[in-house]
């Protein structure tokens, strides 16, 4: 059995979904506030990827913008790699996320792992 991030193992039903939705919403707020950017980028993304879900495109968008503010290209590519990994066998999820993020990726000048050739390594 895979360990959970946080205390979600004790809650069941809708309360877990509501709590996660509220927490993910606060993620976007933290990434927009410059004071929390560095802290959240290093700890929050790790926690977010630990959940059994693929983050919404708006959360990934906020994380990529935080990476740009910190001039951290490597983290932005790692985030996209993690999203692809989290999508797992569901082949339609990752292209959808990239489609939703395409304007942001173009605006910030961020390449996808496929554009960098990292999917062949």
Automatic annotation (TrEMBL):
Which coarse location class applies to the principal site listed for this UniProt protein?
mitochondrion
InterPro entries under this entry? Cyt_c_oxidase_su5A/6 (IPR003204), Cyt_c_oxidase_su5A/6_sf (IPR036545)
Question: Where would you find this protein in the cell?
Answer: Mitochondrion inner membrane
What membrane topology does the annotation report for this chain? Peripheral membrane protein
Q: In which pathway does it act?
A: Energy metabolism; oxidative phosphorylation
Query: Superkingdom of this entry's organism?
Result: Eukaryota
Annotated GO MF terms: metal ion binding
Q: Which GO terms describe its cellular component?
A: mitochondrial inner membrane; respiratory chain complex IV
What's a BP term from Gene Ontology annotated to this protein? mitochondrial electron transport, cytochrome c to oxygen
What keywords sit in the KW lines? Heme, Iron, Membrane, Metal-binding, Mitochondrion, Mitochondrion inner membrane, Transit peptide
Functional description taken from the UniProt entry: Component of the cytochrome c oxidase, the last enzyme in the mitochondrial electron transport chain which drives oxidative phosphorylation. The respiratory chain contains 3 multisubunit complexes succinate dehydrogenase (complex II, CII), ubiquinol-cytochrome c oxidoreductase (cytochrome b-c1 complex, complex III, CIII) and cytochrome c oxidase (complex IV, CIV), that cooperate to transfer electrons derived from NADH and succinate to molecular oxygen, creating an electrochemical gradient over the inner membrane that drives transmembrane transport and the ATP synthase.
Q: How does it assemble?
A: Component of the cytochrome c oxidase (complex IV, CIV), a multisubunit enzyme composed of a catalytic core of 3 subunits and several supernumerary subunits. The complex exists as a monomer or a dimer and forms supercomplexes (SCs) in the inner mitochondrial membrane with ubiquinol-cytochrome c oxidoreductase (cytochrome b-c1 complex, complex III, CIII).
UniProt family annotation = Belongs to the cytochrome c oxidase subunit 5A family.
Protein name, per record = Cytochrome c oxidase subunit 5A, mitochondrial
Q: Which organism is it from?
A: Aquarana catesbeiana
């Amino acid at each position: 059995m895979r360990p959970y991030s946080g205390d979600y193992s004790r809650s069941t039903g809708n309360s877990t979904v509501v709590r996660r939705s509220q927490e993910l919403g606060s993620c976007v707020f933290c990434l927009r506030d410059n004071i929390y950017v560095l802290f959240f980028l290093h700890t929050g993304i790790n926690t977010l990827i630990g959940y059994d879900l693929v983050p919404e495109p708006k959360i990934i968008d906020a994380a990529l913008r935080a990476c740009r503010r910190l001039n951290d290209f490597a983290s932005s590519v790692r985030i996209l790699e993690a999203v692809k990994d989290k999508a797992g066998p569901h082949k339609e999820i990752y292209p959808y996320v990239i489609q939703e993020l395409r304007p942001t990726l173009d605006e910030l000048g961020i390449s996808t792992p496929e554009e960098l050739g990292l999917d062949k390594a």
